[in-house]
Design a protein that fits this description.
The complex is a heterodimer of chains A (499) and B (361). With 499 residues, chain A is an all-alpha fold. Chain A is built from 20 helices and two strands. Chain A is globular, with a radius of gyration of 22 Å. Classes of the chains: A mainly alpha (499), B alpha/beta (361).
Chain lengths: 499, 361
């Protein structure tokens, strides 16, 4: 095992694998910056290039290197402009963008990049550590367990509700309703599609997120007529301060990384959910909850770590069973087959060096990207001091290209605009936006697993020990703040929501 | 008719405009280009062909056409560049509507989408704005068959056991238009085998995990997939699963002991309407992963595309690459596709009614 671990490392840093890794990183870097053009689409486009690569580890260095960094660079645009570069980077807007507005873009970027590196390392090590227990670990979660986990995620709506719990719950409810749009997977009946074909496939998350979060910020920037950081003095301690923050809140970063791994292992849930759960966890752990949404660094560290550690978690079912944990993993699986590897048990025995090479690719790719980012971060942070009128055309271009490239469909742009208006009014009247996204993301998942559980087990699943334990954990998480308050240790206050 | 719907292209405006244009273009070509000149410069030289793919990047219906076009270009005189463009939506209906109504029939736009879309036409879904039989069919890389397997640790050894089962087995499905749904329904209709369908999984990979966990115990994948990749190869070799039925007209050499659906229908005396229903539904898998073009492409260009597709499919390099991915190459020519497509949509009302039930409507 240890031997394979070392061999895997040398195979990754050997030439030409390392060269392929660098090319992959370069592509992933720019893809991550463009909203909408996600890791999955890029993998599909780049897959044919990997067929010419002869050995599995070299092919992997290229593909996985590309995928590993999209999560990191997606965070950059979320923080700088309030436009998520990847669907899985949206939660960073909550506190990352307010930090930019406060003239702390450098610090936020430093925190995001450093927590991404730690997240990636935790994800990769989890993949390595779980090798002996991978199969039972994946089989641990059936549909009933996944349903309860989705419900647990939905209860975080309360945490993310901000100043007004009732508005938060309503926004979450609207999100859940929006999740019902589309073809019902059980009966094939059409729900709320209003005669359009576009709505058959449910609302795509990217245009909704980009519209809801980015457009109000651009309008706000136009109205203010200043730069993003609105003439505040730049704090030159910038990037290094963010790095220090990562280590000041080291355990929070580790906990959020583990949340990311956990959601990566679970099929379907992945980074989109993990980032919000981590953000909610980071908010919950604040001593002074009124800082949330106003530019507190913990709100950047949590999702920054989680959306990178999911990549390692995603690989676990892919390697252990040959069953992909996400769309991107399905493509990687195809690449594995072409280079003559059979994912499944033998990846944990005779091809252990390849499995460890994947672990190393995840770690090395993220460290390299972090190094590159640190070289340019201060220049990137300077963008927030450019006059808004110069930035806005470029930002609008990012928004619309981003919405369009997700599915090449014009309707996505319409959805972006509609949710842009919705988002603008939500901000104006003090309605929190994260609950809506959480409802939209988790609604479909919860509905599906509830149906599957009931269809497969009747009502028996409610008495499964694992389900009972998860229900108790959920109740505890919901009740914990109240319990804490009763104990009189700290007065629990809802975070003021300024978003 | 709202705006979003019009974008999908149901008004046929493009087509009305395109038809005369194509005719004029054809006339101009015939009138203005002497045969000698035509021979000098192939039509496709210096042009590019657009391939509209009706699913998102990365899925099975995306990967095959992307592989095929890399070789297709080699065999078209003039070697045009072929650019893939994903147009996902409504399981492929968006792309099919686009190809039928908006794309110009000039041989420069081709499409690849789910071959089961004619189901939606047969059961008269309003959203369908194409006539399956009128597409210009170019070729398909494979003709598939389906099998139905069940976990070997269940008490069901044969279809007979399944027919007599007191508690129907739980089979996984990822949607009403997928094999996981319509094969068990078809088996119930023509063989009297009852199944408890558990729908809602996000795709084959999730059903695989559910089978590992014993949440569901049976599924109906394509034969090539079952023998082509994990976890099925491992399941089959270790005896974890047992195949109880296959849909081919002849028994697959790898499944010598497994009865075909047709044998079983013979054995249980299924009426003709049931057999016709089976044929209509199973044609979808016979079509494989077809490539088509809008109706009305000039015959000489159809010829060029069909020939090139056939040559690409017998290209040793393509075959080697497909073999590396575990894909079967068993091509179907454009003419055969066309015959199947025309036959399959000419169905009497009673078959259409049964189709609705099979598709969960």
């Amino acid at each position: 095992m240890l031997e394979a671990f070392v061999i895997g490392f040398w195979k990754v840093v050997a030439w030409p694998a390392f060269g392929y890794l660098l090319i992959g990183i370069a592509i992933g870097f720019f893809v991550g910056l463009l909203p909408g053009l996600g890791g999955l689409a890029t993998l599909a486009l780049m897959l044919p290039f990997s067929y010419t690569i002869k050995t599995p580890i070299e092919a992997f260095a290229f593909l996985l290197g590309m995928l590993a960094v999209t999560g990191t660079t997606g965070d950059l645009t979320s923080i700088l402009f309030g436009i998520p570069g990847e669907g899985s980077s949206a939660a960073l807007i909550m506190d990352g963008y307010p930090m930019s507005k406060n003239g702390e873009a450098g610090r936020a970027l430093g925190a995001a990049i450093m927590s991404s590196v730690i997240g990636a390392i935790v994800g990769a090590l989890s993949l390595a550590i779980s090798i002996p227990i991978m199969r039972p670990l994946v089989l641990l979660f059936g549909s009933p367990e996944l349903f309860i986990i989705a419900i647990m995620g939905i209860t975080f709506i309360g945490t993310l509700a901000g100043a007004s719990l009732i508005k938060g719950l309503l926004a979450g409810g609207i999100g859940l309703m929006l999740a019902a749009i589309g073809v019902d997977p059980q009966t094939g009946s059409l729900r709320y599609t209003f005669g359009t074909l576009y709505l058959w496939d449910r609302l795509d998350l990217i245009p909704v997120v980009v519209g809801l979060f980015a457009i109000p910020e651009i309008v706000d920037l136009a109205v203010r007529g200043t730069s993003i950081a609105s003439n505040k003095q730049e704090k030159l301690t910038g990037v290094m301060e963010g790095v220090k923050d990562t280590f000041r809140h080291f355990w929070l970063v580790i906990r959020c990384s583990l949340i990311g791994v956990y959601f990566g292992v679970l099929p379907v849930l992945g980074a989109n959910v993990a980032q919000w759960i981590s953000y909610a966890h980071a908010v919950q752990s604040l001593k002074d909850k009124s800082r949330a949404g106003k530019g507190c660094v913990e709100g950047v560290l949590g999702p920054g770590a989680a959306n990178n550690s999911t990549r390692g978690g995603d690989l676990i079912p892919t390697v252990a069973f040959g069953i992909p944990g996400s769309g991107a993993m399905a493509l990687l699986l195809g690449a594995l087959l072409i280079v003559g590897l059979n994912p499944g048990p033998e990846m944990l025995k005779s091809h252990l060096d390849v499995t460890f090479a994947m672990v190393w690719v995840l770690i090395i790719a993220n460290i390299i990207v972090a190094a590159i980012c640190f070289l340019i971060l201060n220049h990137l942070a300077a963008l927030t001091f450019i006059r808004g009128s110069l930035l806005i055309p470029f930002l609008l271009f990012l928004v619309f290209i981003g919405s369009f490239t997700a599915n090449n469909s014009l309707e996505d742009i319409i959805v972006t605009l509609i949710f842009g208006v919705v988002g603008y009014f939500m901000v104006m009247f003090g309605w929190p936006r994260p609950p809506l996204i959480l409802g939209l993301t988790l609604g479909k998942i919860a509905e599906n697993y509830l149906w599957i559980s009931t269809a497969a087990y009747g009502a028996k699943w409610l008495a499964f020990p694992s389900v009972v334990i998860l229900i108790l954990i959920t109740i505890f998480t919901v009740a914990y703040p109240t319990i804490k308050e009763r104990m009189g240790r700290a007065r629990y206050e809802r975070p003021e929501d300024v978003m | 008719m709202n705006r979003a719907f019009r974008i999908v292209g149901t008004e046929g405006t493009g087509k009305r405009g395109a038809r005369p244009a194509a005719l004029l273009l054809g006339l101009a070509l015939v009138a203005g280009v002497s045969p000698a000149q035509a021979a000098d410069a192939p039509f496709y030289q210096g042009k590019s062909i657009r391939l509209v793919i009706g699913s998102t990047a990365g899925g099975g219906y995306d990967q095959w056409p992307r592989l095929a076009i890399r070789y297709l270009s080699r065999h078209i005189p003039g070697n045009p560049e072929i650019v893939p463009q994903n147009m996902p939506g409504a399981g492929g209906i968006v792309a099919a509507n686009y190809l039928y109504n908006i794309a110009r029939p000039d041989g420069l736009t081709i499409g690849a989408f789910n071959p089961a879309l004619y189901f939606d036409q047969l059961i008269k879904r309003d959203e369908v704005k194409f006539d399956w039989g009128k597409f210009t069919w170019i070729g398909s890389p494979e003709q598939n068959e389906i099998l139905h397997f069940i976990r070997a640790d269940t008490p069901y050894k044969t279809i007979d056991d399944l027919r007599n089962a007191k508690v129907p087995p739980r089979c996984g499905s990822s949607g009403t238009g997928t094999t996981g749904h319509y094969i068990p329904r078809l088996m119930e209709e023509v063989l009297g085998v009852k199944t408890h369908i558990v729908g809602g999984y996000q795709g084959g990979a999730e059903i695989d995990l559910a089978i590992e966990r014993n949440e569901v115990v049976c599924w109906s994948p394509v034969v090539a997939t079952y023998f082509g990749r994990e976890p099925y190869k491992r399941w089959h070799q270790s005896g974890f699963t047992r195949v109880v039925m296959q849909t081919g007209t002849k028994r697959d050499p790898r499944l010598k002991d497994v009865p075909t659906l047709w044998e079983l229908m013979q054995r249980y005396g299924t009426p003709d309407s049931g057999k016709r229903l089976a044929k209509v539904i199973l044609t979808a898998v016979t079509l494989g992963r077809p490539v088509s073009a809008p109706p009305g492409v000039p015959p000489d260009r159809v010829r060029i595309l069909r020939d090139a597709y056939a040559k690409a499919m017998s290209d040793p390099e393509l075959r080697a690459e497909a073999a590396r991915r575990g894909w079967n190459v068993n091509p179907l020519a454009g003419e055969e596709l066309e015959a199947h497509a025309r036959e399959v949509i000419a169905q009497p009302p009673d078959v259409v009614e049964k189709m609705k039930w099979v598709l969960g409507k």
